Amino acid sequence: MKINMSPRVKNILEWTYCIIIAIVLALLFRYYVGTPTVVQQPSMYNTLEEGQRLILNRWVRTVHGDYERGDIITFEAPSNPVPSAFEVDMNNPVASYDYEPKGFFAKFNYYVLEFTKTSYIKRVIAVSGDHIKIEEGRVYLNDQELNEPYLREGITTDGGTFNDIVVPEGYVFVMGDNRPHSTDSRSFGCIPIDKIESKVLIRFWPLNKFGKVY
Asked: Which of 26, 70, 134, 195 could cross-link with 76 by S-S, CB 3.0 to 4.6 Å?
């Protein structure tokens, strides 16, 4: 049976179809390839400042790429960023992730739209198998003092709960460059690689600081 459709209705349906396809493609690109973001935390100052805009590389997550020391990454915030001494297992120095959204729409909102998810931005300091130790304001990586040219002059690193550990397989140890004002692996432990969302690719705003971030 042939349906007679007015040109006006046909035009509306075609535009609706195109808009839906565009939204789906944009969401797929955002999740699997890359997306812009705005720095909203002071923990990476002065490498990154609040209000600066970045392009995030999510392709590295899609293809299960490697993360290296010095990479600046974003990741899902742990369920308990500051666990108490009674909640810490030093034999398993990893961050806790207890929250799991229930239902398709809750998961879509959390993992794809990310409206209800909190993410952190930090620098990878140590990777699987590395021995990290923080002592007297200094960071030691595999028994050698770590050279950290990205830190502001005079910045020291206070220890936390996890200040002398070996990073487990499949995890990374992260810290913010603004050490006195960063909640990071010193307090919540190592981050599982499958909770990493992206690497910072470039900074595109402000224009006078456009380029790759180190």
From this structure: 195
186 and 132, same structural domain? yes
* Summary mean pLDDT of the chain: 94
- Is residue 112 domain-shared with residue 26, that is, in the same domain? no
Please tell me whether residues 145 and 190 are part of one structural domain. Answer: yes
In the chain, the number of structural domains is 2
Rounded distance between C-alpha atoms, residue 35 and residue 30, angstroms: 5
